[in-house]
Amino acid sequence: MCALLQNKLFISTRPNGQSDELKRLFLKEGASLLEMPLIEIQTIQPDEKGKDLLKKLNLFQWLIFTSPNGVRSFFSILKDERIEISTNFQIAVIGKKTKKTVEAFGFDVAFLNPGNTAEEFVPAFIQELKNNTEKPNVLLLLGNLARTFIQDELSNVANCTRIDVYETLAPKDINEESMDLIRKNCYEMLIFTSPSTIQNFMKLNTNVPAANIRCACIGEITANEAKKQGITNLVVAEDASATGIVQSIIQSYSKNF
């Protein structure tokens, strides 16, 4: 147990049901975690073109998933549409959690990104494809807010097709208990895992100046959005995992003692 986090209260903005591991890790360090989901994940039902592509998965040599949400939504769509899935393709993923989610559905992962970002994924995946004599057909299964970086960068080495299988929405209801603690400054840090969580938080009109917000962010993209919104008191977790967040927070506190 790290005494630095003893009796401190953190607030997670992850989607509902996705903070269990984070809660366990904070509890292990003597801290508490409240959930205040600031985004909801909803599967996108494909149009006729999307359905047709999903029925022709045998035409693709690779499927790419960048998050567990993409994996869950993809398999949910296949189940709803009663689409039989072939095993002619290989699967590439970003992140160990995404890998575990794929494996939970009974499929193997052929390529695991060595890092946690699209910028790290692309050069490593290009190396994976370097011995191909022809451009492989690659299907990206992403969220509606995902950048076009991967398909743009792979365009010279692969034939890329993208299907958005889930969308990120602002939640209809906000945990008022957590909001009240933020207004009263009775919390240690907010945990932001995407630019959307920050954007939705800033729209809530909490009457708390951005300069007074304390937070931990996953990755530079999320951190840059925090800074753009005027939040400067932040910790950046380069490892996009629950363990990475907690370790980064502990390291931050250690520097101040």
Question: What's a quick, concise take on this entry?
Answer:
The chain contains 10 helices and 11 strands. The protein is an alpha/beta fold. The protein is elongated, with a radius of gyration of 20 Å.
SSE blueprint:
Blueprint lengths: L8 E4 L7 H9 L3 E4 L4 E4 L4 H7 L7 E4 L2 H13 L9 E4 L2 H9 L6 E2 L5 H12 L7 E7 L5 H6 L4 E11 L6 H8 L5 E4 L2 H8 L11 E5 H10 L4 E5 L4 H14 L2
Parallel strand pairs: 1-2, 1-9, 4-5, 4-7, 5-6, 7-8, 9-10, 10-11
Antiparallel strand pairs: 3-8
Overall number of strands: 11
- The count of domains is 2
CATH class of the largest domain: Alpha Beta
Strand order of the largest sheet: 3-8-7-4-5-6
Major sheet, described briefly? 6 strands, mixed
Bin the strand percentage. 15-25%
Structural commentary:
It is built from 10 helices and 11 strands. The chain has helices spanning 20-28, 48-54, 68-80, 96-104, 118-129, 149-154, 176-183, 195-202, 219-228, 242-255; strands at residues 9-12, 32-35, 40-43, 62-65, 90-93, 111-112, 137-143, 159-169, 189-192, 214-218, 233-237. It has a 6-stranded mixed β-sheet with strand order 3-8-7-4-5-6, covered by helices on one side. α1 packs parallel to α10 (242-255), α3 packs parallel to α4 (96-104) and α8 packs parallel to α9 (219-228). It is elongated, with a radius of gyration of 20 Å.
Name the descriptors.
Rossmann fold; elongated; 6-stranded mixed β-sheet; 257 residues; 5-stranded parallel β-sheet; alpha/beta
